[in-house]
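Quick one: structure tokens for this chain, please?
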Amino acid sequence: MILVEIRGLMCCEVVEVSTSKTGKHGHAKCHFVAIDIFNGKKLEDIVPSSHNCDVPHVSRTDYQLIDISEDGFVSLLTENGNTKDDLKLPTDDALLTQIKDGFAEGKDLVVSVMSAMGEEQICALKDIGPK
């Protein structure tokens, strides 16, 4: 997976790259087609091939799910025993349903949180069994 920062705003996975030939008055251009890793939006950018692209640092952390509040925020147990209460449930319908159903059934759930460029989002779920 190749990740780039598009226009300094979005952290994206590159899905297609094409280059044009050097023109009469300038450099060859690279055309990037990428998908935002947090909201799935398709983005495009064209940059001179002689320029560098910024690559964001993306980290993934697992937390045990403790509670889901009425307003859609989750309470997560960190590695050092504290709670993390600033994340909302994901917007992906399939993942949202899995989390809510598993929690309602009383299963022990571990969520994976992806963070990059000051943004965090729940991106995956692991069922570690019944409580």
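DSSP finds one helix and nine strands in the chain.
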